[in-house]
Amino acid sequence: MIRAATARDLPALVRMAGDFIAATATGLPFDADYLDSSFRAMIAAPDRLVLVLDINGACGVLCAAAARSPWAPVAIASEMGFWIDPPHRGRWGLRLLHAYLDWARGMGCGRAGMVAFANNPLDRLYQKAGFRLSELTYDRVI
User: Fold this and answer.
1) Which DSSP letter does residue 26 get?
2) How many CB atoms lie within 10 A of CB 96?
3) Residues whose CB falls within 8 Å of the CB of residue 27, separated by 6 or more in sequence, listed in order
4) With 80 as the cut, is the pLDDT of residue 26 above it?
5) What's the Cα-to-Cα distance from 126 to each of 12, 38, 70, 119, rounded to whole Å?
6) Per-residue pLDDT tens for 72-100?
7) Rounded to an integer, what distance in angstroms lies between the CA atom of residue 124 and that of residue 9?
8) Is the overall model pTM greater than 0.85, yes or no?
9) Could you tell me if 77 and 64 are in contact, meaning their C-beta atoms sit under 8 angstroms apart?
10) Quick check: 133 pLDDT over 90?
């Protein structure tokens, strides 16, 4: 089942965020208290989305934000985190993406974006959901 996250999901959300950080080698530090606070704020915010994939407990998450573009009078949804525990990957990713798109439409967004790391293993999934590559982001640890 895909549903909105609640405070009861916080331990699983923090665990999944830690798994994401470790698996993606972002170089970000894991801080459970910070993540707990961040997820609490996202769950409470009307312009944020925290979806949970619940299969006998939370095993996937997709977080997003909706905001007006500074460049045009249109709202844009932006994914902030996407993780599914390895045993549950496959058919659920596309379902989470469709739930995200439904939310974005409901928020009045004219566009929705997904973030991908270099050598994106999710490229086919994103394309299957109708996304196309639109820009590249470069970052540097400073």
Assistant:
1) -
2) 21
3) 141
4) no
5) 25, 26, 25, 13
6) 999 999 999 999 999 999 889 999 999 99
7) 29
8) yes
9) yes
10) no
Question: What is the Cα–Cα distance from 26 to 54, expressed in whole angstroms?
Answer: 26
- What is the structure's pLDDT at 40? 98
CB atoms within 10 A of CB 70: 6
The superfamily (CATH) of domain 2-128 is: Gcn5-related N-acetyltransferase (GNAT) (3.40.630.30)
* Domain ranges across the chain: 2-128
* Nearest of 27, 2, 32 to residue 15 by alpha carbon: 32
**In terms of residues, how long is the chain?**
142
Asked if residue 121 has pLDDT above 80, the reply is: no
**Residue 82: Cβ-neighbour burial (10 angstroms; 0-12, 13-18, 19+):** buried
List all residues 6 or more positions away from 55 whose beta carbon is below 8 Å from its beta carbon. 1, 88, 92
